[in-house]
Amino acid sequence: MSEVAIPREVQVPLEGFVGEVLGALGDAVIGVERCDERRGFARIDPQRTVEVARRMLAMAGTRLATATGIDVRDGIDVLYHWCIEPQGVVVTLKVLAAGPEMTVDSIAPVVPAANWIEREMHDLLGANFRGHPDMRRLILDDSWPEGVYPLRKDFDQVRDRPPLPPAPPAPEEALP
Amino acid sequence: MINIGPFHPLQEEAEFFQLYVDGERVVDVDVRISYNHRGIEKLDESKTFDQVPFVVERVCGICSASHPLAYVQAVEDIAHVQVPERALYLRTIVNELERIHSHLLWVGLAGHFLGYNTVFMWAWKYREPILDALEVATGSRVNYANCKIGGVRRDMTDEQLKEIDRLATESYGPVEMLTKAVIDDPVLHARLKNVGVLSKADARAYGATGPTGRGSGLPIDVRRDDPYAAYDRIDWQVHYEESGDVFAKAKVRLLETLEAVKIIQRAVRAIPGGEIDAKVQNIPPGEAVGHVEAPRGETFHYVRSDGSNYPVRHKVRAPSFNNIPTFKASCIGQEIADVAITLASVDPCYSCTERMCAAVDAESGRRMFDFAQLVKLSQEKTQRLRRQL
User: Fold this and answer.
1) Is residue A39 part of a domain?
2) What is the average per-residue pLDDT within B266-283?
3) What counts of helices (H) and strands (E) characterise chain A?
4) pLDDT of residue A3
5) Nearest by CB to B42, which of A57, A140, A151?
6) How far is B313 from chain A (nearest CA, A)?
7) B33 vs A138: CB contact, 8 Å cut-off?
8) Percentage of chain A with pLDDT > 70?
9) Which span out of B201-215, B335-349, B351-365 was modeled with the highest average pLDDT?
10) pLDDT at site B325
11) Where are the domains of chain B?
12) Which residues of chain A make contact with B226, given a CB cutoff of 8 A?
């Protein structure tokens, strides 16, 4: 399933500071959806997420604000939001974790700020991050069943809610 | 060996921290969050664009002006809305009042952790008129229900603005006194300097925001860098410190509180008349991000629309989600007595989380202290320093 069709992008011209940032990523950028004064949205090559993250963090004034996972038809769309200060720019780099494995390379070894948010996307959406240093559960309780992802579109909060775990046994010794 | 928690009345809310200690030194930190996850992102997908602000202001009882503002800014970006000037000023006033009350709340709690209960009493006393000002401005002390897509919901009369100006101006003197008391106190210098140091490089790598980043020499502030509301129309300055310790973070917060009073005074005097609502009709398909400088740091929202009445995806990232992992960098190597204030120094507020802190022996895994005992240790250390000086 490696040859999943990557969504066709509208290629917009690179302009201004955001254009410089996206241009510096070279051919790792495979589609630019928006590029204006303070916002940029671009899609990057799923094979090169780590390289892109390393280059982004090396630029002056960048920090990873957070990432968003979206359940789309072809898998999970992972959006890394980078803020660049003092220009006040937010560049969103999208990478598709294509199904059925829904796996992309983790950027957490390079960018510590991605550690928690990748764990969160793994918990809630079932995206997998190859090479993540610590993929324990962050959001879901340990008793939550495997393979049930509450933020997926097909998860119904009433119909699909898993049963509560059994209550812990009552303490045996009486209170003084 | 008393377990206190998951819910403990010491601070507004927090997480489960496991500190691995070797003797008196912390060797590792593990954080577990989300004991009270409410699924707000999923819930928002079943709310209309107009309803979502009232849901997200309940993400946090303290940042209940910042979250809706970040969300509406994202939606306004999708819909290309030009928000009226007066609405921008009104948003600024409410957000700065929120910053004052949040920072004063933190100062009080930090004082309590250090055994300065007078500071706690003072800070919370001066916070009270600010909450009254918020009630004047929005009709409510929490959950202001003020922001809407395209503007704000309620206008303020001249009398209301004057009253807000008066309450904010009257709080300047006491807050200045509190700031000087903290900055000049030799015990606090000894207690907080070089404690819980977060280096500039670590702050950037962990994506620290707000006073946590600014205390570590990152001069970042969304209000200045990516101006929203009326922040680019008012003269004000960003405070930051280079040292990265708890003292720097405290100083940044206190100076910001004073700066917030000035912003409110200037906004109240410069506010233009006119409409307060752009009357947005429908939201076209698209996606956008919105971010706001909440009291604790940058609140980040992402919204995707498919042209229907409901957002397809709404991502909420509260500032503490980025700030709490910095403990990995700032707590390790600390004395146990310094942990309580280091943890408190980022003002951890993550409303999907639990309040509990345990210190575990690195070898045996035995649980040694809980959070109340850590606070007690911290207070005892202050007493010790006070006697020495």
Assistant:
1) yes
2) 92
3) 3, 7
4) 41
5) A151
6) 7
7) yes
8) 91
9) B201-215
10) 85
11) 16-36+322-388, 40-318
12) 38, 88-90
Q: For position B367, what pLDDT does the model report?
A: 58
Query: In terms of pLDDT, which residue wins out, B361 or A98?
Result: A98
Q: How confident is the model at residue A6 (pLDDT cuts 50, 70, 90)?
A: very low
Within 35-74 of A, beta carbons closer than 8 Å to B belong to 38-39, 41, 57, 63-66, 68, 70
The alpha carbon of residue A63 is apart from the nearest alpha carbon of chain B, in Å, by: 5
Considering Cα of B12, then B294, then A107, then A46, what sign does the dihedral take?
positive
Element (H, E) at B321: helix B319-323
B217 vs B198: CA distance, rounded Å: 10
For B302, the closest of A68, A85, A112 (CB atoms) is A68
**Whole-angstrom Cα distance, residue B331 to residue B25?**
9
Any A CB within 8 A of B200 CB: no
ipTM over 0.90: no
Q: For position A23, which CATH number holds? A: 3.30.460.80
Most confidently modeled range among B46-60, B253-267, B341-355:
B253-267
Which range marks the domain in which residue A49 is found? 16-101
Distance from CA of A64 to the nearest CA of B (A): 6
Please provide the DSSP assignment of B139-158 as one string: S-SS----EETTEES----H
Which A positions 7-36 lie with beta carbon below 8 A of chain B? none
Q: How many domains does chain A have?
A: 1
Residue B9 reports pLDDT greater than 70: no
Q: Sheet containing B356-361: which strands, arranged edge to edge?
A: B25-32, B16-22, B356-361, B367-370
A contacts of B348 (beta carbons < 8 Å): none
A160 part of a folded domain: no
Per-state percent for chain B, helix, strand, coil, to nearest 5: 50, 15, 35
* Mutation site, A12, A35, A41, A68, interface B, largest B CB count within 10 A: A68
Pick the CATH number of B40-318 from 1.10.645.10, 1.10.760.10, 1.50.10.20, 2.60.120.10: 1.10.645.10
